[in-house]
Amino acid sequence: MRASKGALENTPVPIKIKLSALWASLMFCYIYGDYFGLYRPGTLKSMLDGQMGPLGPTTQGVLLATALLMAVPSLMVILCLVLPPAINRIANIVLGLAYAAIMLMSMPGAWHFYLVLGCIEVALSLLTVWYALRWPRQPAL
Q1: Which residue from 18, 53, 73, 92 has the highest number of Cβ atoms inside 10 Å of its Cβ?
Q2: Structural domain containing residue 53
Q3: How many domains is the chain partitioned into structurally?
Q4: Contact criterion met (CB below 8 Å) for 70 and 109
């Protein structure tokens, strides 16, 4: 005789895990966008000539600024798990909005693959803000 099967369990995911996963997903899109961008004609030649696209000449300062810009979302993967809720919430709102804005500024005139990834990145950033704004609160005593 066949045993009846119940509905699949939908285990609630803690907000910190959701936010961490959103930042990790965002970073994958950043990495793929940068990687695919290497295949555009002339990109590697420009890099060998010491140019960083719209950022101009490759200098230590430009590389440092770019590294810091990309380090923040990478660090948010772990910071979402370890920061206290109040700081965590504010950081996710502020940084989520900032990175959505940065992405929107970099999209005009971009190739189609970049526009698709850019739209996904903006959606992930805004979803991060939305989850942070809706951070669950403990019941008042």
Answers
A1: 92
A2: 15-133
A3: 1
A4: no
